[in-house]
Amino acid sequence: KYLASTKFISKMVIAGVIAINGAVFHGAHFRVLQRLVGISLRTSALFHRKSRGMFINGAVSIISWLFTLALGSLRGLPYSIGEILTSYGFLLLIGICVALALRARFLARV
Questions:
Q1: In the list 46, 67, 83, 103, which could disulfide-bond 79, CB 3.0-4.6 Å?
Q2: What's the Cα-to-Cα distance from 39 to each of 26, 56, 63, 76, 91, rounded to whole Å?
Q3: Are 48 and 108 in contact (CB under 8 A)?
Q4: Tell me, what DSSP letter sits at residue 3?
Q5: For the residues of 8-36, what is the DSSP string, one character each?
Q6: Taking the complete model, does pTM exceed 0.85, yes or no?
């Protein structure tokens, strides 16, 4: 029953993205953030170098969680897995662009 559900399969694919994104964040950014405790992020050269990936990880996380939540709240979906995941990918692209624009705005306020 579940394997025939495009909604379920799409949610599982996105859950996989969430897990990978969390592992990447933990492996690549957590130690950097620990080193930056108490330091102004706007003036930190380390944060300037590493923040692009952090902002991208944040965008992937929020879009993934919200998309999964939205999928879970909808009853029947008359869309294929490809259509659902294409929509998700499009929202990821928009989210990453917005995150990078916010990063540029944040770092410009020095």
A1: 83
A2: 20, 21, 28, 49, 33
A3: no
A4: G
A5: HHHHHHHHHHHHHHHHHHHHHTHHHHHHT
A6: yes
